[in-house]
Design a protein that fits this description.
CATH architecture: 2-Layer Sandwich
Oligomer: single chain
Number of domains: 1
Strand order of the largest sheet: 3-2-1-4
Shape: elongated
Order of helices and strands: EEEHE
Helix content: 25-40%
């Protein structure tokens, strides 16, 4: 059975960075761009899963979601 985890990128407007919310133990990401966030997720998530859950030599599925709020001026 393949394990499934989630990673959510949320825009922090005050800090001007993407921050992570995840059920992967130890995974904490802050990045200025969404592309940088995804690169970090793809490199750090396997490391955190191996170090903190004991998973090795397997595949896992990651549900990757992006959340951002924008203010729009309505005429």
């Amino acid at each position: 059975m393949t394990a499934t985890y989630f990673v959510k990128a949320h825009w922090d407007a005050e800090a001007s960075v993407w921050v992570s919310q995840s059920d992967i133990p130890g995974l904490v990401i802050e990045a200025e761009t969404l592309a940088e966030f995804e690169d970090l997720m793809m490199s750090l998530a396997p490391e955190m899963l191996a170090a903190n859950t004991g998973l090795h030599n397997t595949s896992v599925s990651i549900q990757f979601d992006v959340s951002s709020r924008r203010d729009l001026a309505v005429a």
